[in-house]
Amino acid sequence: MLSFCYLATMLICGVPEKVHAALVLQSEKNRRSKEKQERFLIEGGLRGVVSAKNTVVEADRMRAHCQREVSMTEILQWTETH
Question: 77 lies in which domain range?
């Protein structure tokens, strides 16, 4: 049986060059593709982005409950999904 999954597509026109350049830098810093960084920012804006302070507090709480050292990669993966 064949099944198809259709994903919505967006095209954003008229983005200032400075904004585009900042997006590219931010995506590189976060080790994401530009498209994934765009989705991350849009989704975060729609659900309310957790502040950096709250992220650090949550990371410390997670570390306290772990039996091993938690890597930054694991923390970033967790914050992307919560």
Answer: 51-82
Q: Is residue 69 part of a domain?
A: yes
Residues 6+ apart with CB under 8 A from 62: 70, 75, 78
Here the tokens at position 62 are 């997670």
- CB atoms under 10 Å from CB of 55, counted, come to 16
Q: Provide the number of structural domains found in the chain.
A: 1
> Is 73 part of a structural domain of the chain?
yes
Looking at residue 1, its pLDDT comes to: 60
Report the C-alpha gap between 1 and 39 in whole angstroms.
Answer: 31
Give pLDDT tens digits for 63-81. 777 777 777 787 778 777 7
